[in-house]
Design goal:
Layout: E1 4-17, E2 20-33, E3 37-41, H1 48-55, E4 63-68, E5 71-72, H2 78-88, E6 89-93, H3 104-113, H4 120-132, H5 148-160, E7 166-170, H6 178-193, E8 198-201, H7 205-208, E9 213-218, E10 221-227, H8 232-236
Parallel strand pairs: 3-8, 3-9, 6-7, 7-8
Antiparallel strand pairs: 1-2, 1-4, 4-5, 9-10
Helix pairs in contact: 3-4, 3-5, 4-5, 5-6
The structure holds adenosine-5'-diphosphate and magnesium ion.
């Protein structure tokens, strides 16, 4: 059975600027199954940031529906939105957004702190996440003592700490050199291979090509939604995507 990580229906966001209304997102309908890896692209001003802020529950749509699991987030009040953001959404930013005074392990634990003290089994899980991103031997380091790529690894581990519905990455490789960027993209692919749902915003085509699916926005609307292979081998076989999926494989549709 395929479960849905995110579903939005006719999502709209208007910004009122005095007498003027900016229609930043003008009716986006999109379903992201659990385990998907989606890149969101589009020219400047096409609504990427606005859409990302809606998905991140940092902002509320003007109209439309937004389901996370069974819950319609579009109908939630500010407190409920903060709660769901803290408890079920993982964010990775271009500038890492780590807390300089905290160690690697403490930074990874940050999403768990809003509920109070971190429990021993949660701390154990955070250590495992540090290991997963290759920083098991850097738990006591502070962000200043790490390279950019290592800091982004901490941020990725942090994004997983609350067992999120999906990880939302905003130009996550934008500050990194190309070799380090490739390492971070390889880590995202590795996480996706273990079933994590990833949605990333990027303006770079070669970054987007690491995703399974590329969604393009234009003027606040969906311009295209392209399915790609999940790995290089499947990419080479991408011509076969037009063929019907084998019975019961669950990859069709
Ligand atoms: P992108 O991230 O793709 O460059 P944005 O989502 O930032 O696009 O912007 C989409 C449109 O909404 C643009 O026309 C932009 O000027 C407008 N916009 C974005 N944020 C605001 C805001 N806070 N107030 C008013 N207009 C905004
Ligand atoms: Mg933007």
């Amino acid at each position: 059975m395929t479960t849905t990580a995110v579903r939005v229906e006719d999502l709209k966001k208007d910004y009122v600027m005095g007498a003027e209304v900016v229609h930043a997102v003008r009716g986006i309908t999109l379903e992201v199954p659990a385990g998907d890896y989606v890149a969101i692209m589009g020219p400047s001003g096409s609504g990427k940031s606005t859409f990302l802020n809606l998905l991140a529950c940092l902002d509320r749509p003007s109209s439309g529906r937004y389901f996370l699991g069974e819950d319609d987030v579009a109908r939630m009040d500010d407190d409920q939105l903060s709660e769901i953001r803290a408890s079920r959404i993982g964010m990775v930013f271009q500038s890492y957004n780590l807390i300089q005074q905290l160690t690697v392990l403490e930074n990874i634990e940050v999403p768990l702190m809003y509920r109070g003290n971190v429990k021993p089994e949660e701390r154990r899980r955070c250590r495992e996440l540090a290991q997963l991103v290759g920083l098991g031997d850097r738990l006591g380091h502070r962000p200043m003592q790490l390279s950019g790529g290592q800091q982004q690894r901490v941020a990725i581990a942090r994004s997983l700490a609350n067992n999120p519905y999906f990880v939302l990455a905003d130009e996550a490789t934008g500050n990194l050199d190309s070799a380090t960027s490739d390492e971070i993209l390889a880590l995202f692919e590795q996480l996706n291979d273990t079933g994590k749902t990833i949605i990333m915003v990027t303006h770079e085509q070669d970054v987007a090509e690491h995703a399974k699916r590329i969604v393009r926005l234009r003027d606040g609307m969906l311009q295209s939604d392209e399915q790609r292979g999940s790995d290089r081998r499947q990419k080479q076989l991408s011509g076969l995507w037009a063929a019907p999926a084998p019975e019961g494989s669950g990859v069709g549709g």
